[in-house]
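Hi, here's the filled form for the chain we discussed.

Project: internal
Contact: R.S.
Residues: 1226
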Amino acid sequence: MRSVRRFLLSLLLLGLGLLCGLAQAASSYTFRSDSYAWETAANAISTWDKTCTSYPGDDDKATINFSGGFKFRFAGIDYTSVRVLTNGGLQFGTDTGFFRTYTNTALPAGTAGSSSGCAAAATTNVILAYWTDLNPSQAGSGGVTWEQKGTAPNRYLVVSWNGVYQYNTSTPYTFQIILYESSSGVNGEFKFQYGNANATGSQATIGVQVNSSDYTQYSYNSGYNANGSAIRWFVPSGTPTRRAEYRFDEYSYAGRVGEVADSSGNSNNGVRAGAATTVAAGYVCRGLSIPADATSASHGVDTLLDVNSAIGDSGAVTFWYSANTAWNNSAATLLDATTQTAKPFFLVRQGDGSLRATVSDGNGQLLSAVTSAQSVSAGTWKHIAISWRLSSGAGQSSLRIYINGVQAGAASGTTTGSLDGGIGTLFVGDNRGAALPANGTSRSANGTIDEMRVYNYEISALELTADMNPSHTCPPPLDHVEAVPSATAGSTCAPSTVTIRACSDAACNTVMTGYSGTVVLNTSSSHGTWALGSGGGGFSAGASNSGNASYTFSSADQGVARLTLSHNQAQNVTVTAVDSLTPSTATTSAAIQFRDNAFVFSEDAGATITGTFVAVAGRPHDMQISLIKKDASNSNCGVAADFSGTRKLKLWRTDSGGTWTAPSVQSPTLTVGTSRPSATADFAFTNGVATFNLLTTDVGNYSFTVEDDTQTYTPTTISGGSATLTVRPFVIGITGIAMGSVINPGATAPSASTPDNTRFGAAGAPFAATLTAYRWNSTAGDNSGQPLAGATLTQVAAGGVAAGFNAPVTLKLLTTGFTPAGGSPGTLSHASISGGFSGGALTVSNLSYNEVGSMKLDTRNATKVVTGYLGTTGADVSALAFDATGAQQPVVGRFVPAGFTAALLAPVQRSQLSCTPASTFTYLDESFILKFTLTAVNAQGNTTQNYAGSTFARLDLASANFNLAGVDTTGGVTTRFPASRLNVGASAGAWPAVGDSAAGTATVTLTAAAKRAAAPDGPFNTAQFGIAPSDQDGVGMAAFDLDTDAAVPGNDRTKVGQIPLLHGRLRLQNGMSAAGRDLKLALSAQSWNGTAFVTNALDSCTTVTAANLSFGNFRKQLGSADAKAPGSVTVNPIAPTFITLTKPSGNRVGSMDVAIALGAVTSPVDTSCLKTAGGWTAATPATAGLNLDALRGAWCGSTATSDPSARATWGLYRGSDGVVYQRENY
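And the returned structure, exactly as it came back:
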């Protein structure tokens, strides 16, 4: 009954599966492909919880408690235990009953089914490596094991499903989850690994779900070949960066995860989907060829980059495209991440040759940009780019399309500011699934795509131009693949090592490091059993003792992998190797002479050196030669205990991958050459075993052959060979860290001393370092080949340089060692160094660190800067960094910003007033407020978020530090406003605290006023003001765009605002009225137009109130009682404005003088001409000033320092009638 119920439920969900393709997300977590390295797990989960489930031991759970203080931080919470789910996942925190849900669905997973008395809540905090119906309790099924490994701070937990059967089948699934310890407060990373070919994902859900709105789906019922692959999960930093670069230079694709290489160094490797291929005719080197297809099937590349979480709400994609038909021939999908028809993300070529890009926010609001129809013929390369930025606010979101570097289409609109959470991973060259949105198309790109770059920010025109001109070395072609035995002699009792190589030339002088194909192997005897030696790719053994196997290379293999071959029959055996897709690549190896009596090499008996057949240059390496023989009567193998005493042997080496410096044997004294010697050396055997120390003076990669042709033990020659021994450097020394002439101070914070010598250089600017490979010596290294704590450069260098070293080195940073503590961890650019060593040393000059503060190189022994040296697992090398004195110094810094940038905000005109509507000008001598943001940036122009707090933000935002100046060019006449013509007031603003989301940017307000000249001047309609601050480290503005200083050519300030300036005055005119009537005094605001004062048509804000008026000089019948307070009045630029005085009572006549106090608000001083020229004393003085000195005029002198005044007269006698002749008649 249970099987029937599950089958019916699967049918109900099938339709949903058709709509939910590969990776979807609305999540904080994202993923990338990673190197595959299976981890053993020793502890079996033999007892499951068996409560709250109808199927104990099947749909069940078990809890693992971490030990030793190990914690794993998931979604911002630290956990000390985890719940293991039989059905292929882990869950943190509260039990929601999800373990009972045996039928997988697309994410988000829903609420668990109910069970009496048991939890049944919304699914949270699950990581699903392979969610399907698994039954570890079924007869014959493998089980689930776990183990906590490593030492702090590099501990990790492994949980493995080992050949676990799917319910009611005998199909086994092998996969594992690894949880990695992280720094305090940092979300831990975790990895899914897939160990057999059944784990394709075709009947499973793979992903992460924090909750129903925060999840990332890698795949749902989608059949990728996951055998030997790995997926790394992490929370992205959000730092502006190039997320991926796909050159499409691989020589073949097989649909294997990670085969489409990301050349950015971020390991965002993709996978071929459908029938897309790689072709020689790319724009640069090879390219991605998309076949013609008009169905819903996908033929392209899935980048596995989730558009939401790995790229984000701002981003860009650029690429070159050559269509197989004219652009107006038919529609074509170029990019697609759509999983829901109503919420798309795509770039298509439309049937008329135009391009259309569409993105969707979480509410389904679409933003679409369309170009005009393009006339492009078949086979023509065009560079295409799209960029998007979603930001909340009206009209703040934008989408752009570029063709050959020129904007060809754009749109702006209003969105939520976030892409829709259901948008999936980015597909290249075709639609990603059945979801076909409006204006989308199911037709493929039908052409070649090349040199694609993906960014998590809107790129600049400069970056777009650079993307249009890609240049890099083309990888060599595949000439052949080959199997190379480490020795021509082998034992039927022990496996022999065989190296598999992808070669770019007939002699295999050049290995094809980017090879990702599959090599098929078979032996000439059709016997033998293969096993995986070293290699991170996918190994598939043939039937036991069939002589057959295949190996699929991973990017980490760099074209070289090692397998072992066991052959229990005494025969000469050759191995044929061939690329699975290219028969012409087949080659046959030299014969391995398997014998029943043979010498077998072993080494490092105490297992002191990490890795198998790995030695350290300069350190004596113990080796053993054993004579192994097979008992003819029972075929049992063992050491020939009767082979003792001094034996005369011939010993030589075979170099692999180059010519290496000869090693030597300490006793007997012997230099190991590359050819079979004529002379023998005496080796002392005891019970069939001889031991000796191998001495090395340089790195190397070679195998050994030994021969006893004396025929004193057997009537035939006895021979044997070793596996290939890799001799690695002892350590990589990092010295000479300098930026120009400045040697790294190794400072973590500014110093209080003067001068402050802690500054190293600008964040993002290049600096140099010298890398040197050293040999081991006992004063600097321990017996395990690792550096001693505190070893000095003198001690390390005493061993000498490993002159033959030339391999990739990747410098790494400690995530907890940077400053300021609690800030944003920076990124070391160009830390991956591909090679170029000469004499064992290399100076690189393009390193850069993008943040303020200091970084700390990870020089712990556990952290390796060289991994898999010469393709050998375990041949890993750490680094030490030294200062100029030779002491260890991993700290590099202190880095400072490269400069500051300013973004203008709306200024406040006439800031001492509250004008409604806002004023559009300011009077000379009147205050205005400049508002702007100041951002500390690195050399690439990106915000340095660690320029924050009181220690690392070293620009005091006091007004005096801004060096404000201005310039006006109205009418083609330049007028400058240097500091002497400015009154700079207070400023406000602060740098955010370290760790604040807005860190690196300060919002500043700066109050200032431009002074009047001695004589009226202006108007200054285009007056612009700029700043030139400099912090305590001498960091100034990144660029100037304003020339305020005539004495110095060029720009000298960065613009922060435009303030139209006018020389103004407030005019009050005399007024007369008949007795018994109110009287009006004309009031107007005037400004200088260059030749005269005229009514200021822009001033509708200046307001005079009764408190601003002084009254006095009462004449005739008037007295102080007649100084009645008028109502307030605001100047009107388009109609006459008056101060209306109330008529004296009783029709009395006379006059009074009136003055307007423009001075200080409190206790204003009367500066009207009535006072300064007439000497009056106001009988009723003003109680408040207007605080508008800027409107004083030259009313009674040559300087504009007088308040306006006027006389009001009632009943003025009009004089005689001027009669010349008058006659009166009565």
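Let me know if anything looks off before we file it.
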